[in-house]
């Protein structure tokens, strides 16, 4: 049985498209169709129901898929265990959130360049919500993001945890100690993207304190550099990881507020979707875990 045909079947089952599978595998739609037909003939069963508009797994295809995915994963692991990873070539798209960019992304890129010199990297900086969709749609290879992502065929690797701190410019009229939520809500609060985990946590904190949501000015942004610039200008305050604003804390442009109420820490994961025949995302996720652990052992966090 041809392993490439099994990989093709797994891709078609995931993408539900012969043309997209052909694009992913660097071949033609006719070749994909021929591989599926040959595999079905070898197995003596029909794996896919297809018409002009859609592709669906047959009951036999549903049963075959999990076994095919397992075989492809084992083959990938075998290649990785005996091969020279430095000789790997190809490209991989890494989705990453702002917090990781500010923290240890440069170290990861350096590590990848050292370990896999023939790999081309494409970076996509976006929100965790958008990266989740792109991972599930197999548009990116690995996501470095707030997680975990619970979805079929998706693997999560723990990376790091960042505490959330209340941050503001010294020019805001706020007490040096014992800042209350009433002090905070007198000013606009710049938060992560609407619907994100930290945004939801902030709204829950406001509600638990007895404040109506519409009585508090919460401004959302998917750009931490934008938020940082606005709070440096004294236009409000924000809840951010230390690593995002460390240089501005050091030079006195921003300060940490002594607020009684705290938000839960942000948990980050490397999220990898199974991609038949592609070991690069998993290898980069492992390197990300190594770099995150090294970063966490220093005073940079």
Automatic annotation (TrEMBL):
HTH lysR-type domain ranges (all copies): 1-58
InterPro entries to which the protein is assigned, alphabetical: LysR_HTH_N, LysR_subst-bd, WH-like_DNA-bd_sf, WH_DNA-bd_sf
Keywords assigned by UniProt, alphabetized: DNA-binding, Transcription, Transcription regulation
SUPFAM superfamilies listed in its UniProt record: Periplasmic binding protein-like II, Winged helix' DNA-binding domain
Domain of life: Bacteria
Pfam families assigned: HTH_1, LysR_substrate
PANTHER family: HTH-TYPE TRANSCRIPTIONAL REGULATOR, TRANSCRIPTIONAL REGULATORY PROTEIN
Sequence similarity: Belongs to the LysR transcriptional regulatory family.
Protein name per Swiss-Prot or TrEMBL: HTH-type transcriptional regulator GltR
Provenance organism: Methylobacterium crusticola
